[in-house]
Amino acid sequence: MQNERTRTKRARLRPHAWIMVVAGALTLISWALASAPGSAPDDNYHMASIWCFGDGSCPTVPGEPSLRRPPAEVPAAPCFSQDSDISAGCQEGLSDDMLPGKATGVGNWNTDSYPPLFYATMHLLITGDLYSSTLLMRVFNGVLLTVVIGSLIAALPRRLKPLGAVPILITSVPLGMTLFASTNPSSWAIAGSAVVWPALYAAFEVRGRRRVALLALFVVGVLMASGSRGDAALFTIGGIGLVLLMRWKELLANKTLVVVAAAGLAISAWFFLTSGQATVVVSGGFGIEPKKVLPWHQIAVANLQQLPVLWAGSLGFGFMASAGWLDTPFPALVGFSATTAWAVYVFGSWREMFPAKVFAVSGVGVAMILYPLVMLGLSGAKVGTGFQPRYLLPLLVILTGVSMLSRRVVASPFTRFQAVLATAALGLAQSLALHTQIRRYVTGLDVGGINLDRGREWWWDLPISATATWVAGSLAFAILAWYFLRPSGLLGSAIVDEIEREMEHEIEETGRREVVTT
């Protein structure tokens, strides 16, 4: 009878799950449409690296092996960058024949600074037109994130399911949203970091096909993160190490998991050591030459006071919270609402603490302090130069996840009223950020008004309007936010109560077996 009730509850969840998948994909596709090609951070470098991946992809310059000629449509620097009042309409006149453009040395072919997997995958999606190629890559990355996170939620045991979605959802506004469906490798770095540690952590609690699925997702996460950015490979190594230390009492009984984890460590280490970013991390910093070099300890003290700008910059807080080429500022209400929702959720999740959780939260917290301080110190630079908030976003996602851990059921710390307020705050922040992002490129921020199509200077050649894109993306995200932030999260109170009873029964049975054995 109990199994029949459980099957019925699971059947009720299936339509909801499909709604969440559609809402997630629609949200990310809306953000994919929200900006013009070349708008993501350092897109001149990343787009040239995508188009010129592999020998023979772009014409070389005789006698200059370091130079290549990307297609003319791949801009050396977008005409709208650095001035938020200039719309993407300045790009009109780009041809569609993809003729070779000016020679450039700005690309991954010279230094191999970035691991090649992201560029190799995006290179496969190139068509004969810049706009269609860019949109195809963005939609692919948005759908990939939706599928990977959805698969993680499905594979996680019921008590841990919120770990699959909430950490990346509640840290995504506004900066994460601008990156997930973009041509920037940070999209994979953040997504992979969000998958690796919960998949490995949960694999210790399940058997059979569910464990196989989690280990497969673990490998996918390792490849996405470490195959996109060198620093993400470090975060992957840290996440794997964190899980092994939290589960150290169970390692001898789960040797297969240890072997898979060791393989993940080896893959991440290989990507890191073979990328040019390894040199940045261990020696040279960002290659910045500050006008006045201060002693290391003075730089560290000055930067320590400004670290919140880097920690919460991805949430729209502080003077480094702008998107794109750091030329798209968001209204203060975005940062206030997103940061408040995140802080209340995380602090509420700290009501329950136990040794493994304290260790995990402390470890990630220390990493969020030391990593930027060391990187800036190596360059002799202060906060605001070189190191950007998006570099810490993977760690912020991990910190949020380990903060949610529970001995029993991982569930939302909110009451129903608090969940309504949090959903409203996060939904408002996302909607306002999406409107600002679209406005930035269709007319420039010197134009106001709710209607994004009035006076429009740029938009995609698609049947959906800019305003409709904003409305669809806002509604889809609001549905996601409520579904995952409501009391008991995606599980529902009835299922949480059932899991609690099952766990209590299991504890009682274990105690009886121990008594009998004694």
From TrEMBL:
The chain crosses the membrane at residues 16-34, 135-156, 163-181, 187-204, 211-226, 232-249, 256-273, 330-347, 359-379, 391-410, 458-485. InterPro entries: DUF2142_membrane. Keywords: Membrane, Transmembrane, Transmembrane helix. This is DUF2142 domain-containing protein.
